[in-house]
Amino acid sequence: MNKIYEQYRKEITNQERFVRLAERRVNRIMDALEKLGSCSDKKNYDYSNTDIKKIFGKIEKKLKETRLKFQGTSRNKREAT
Question: Looking at the whole model, is its pTM more than 0.85?
């Protein structure tokens, strides 16, 4: 079974692996945000503007950190060539 896996891994490119994984992960993030949006119904939940600022502050901070990781990687690749 190890040989089969190694052969499979050689046949797919890094770009193909990235697309496959990124697509799945982005879809999970979108689903989680959809679920979070369901919490906005004031009939069922009680929250303050402070709560909202905390939630979206955390999300925005993590999004920015993640984007910087990609930008750093792109810069590093350009500088190496």
Answer: no
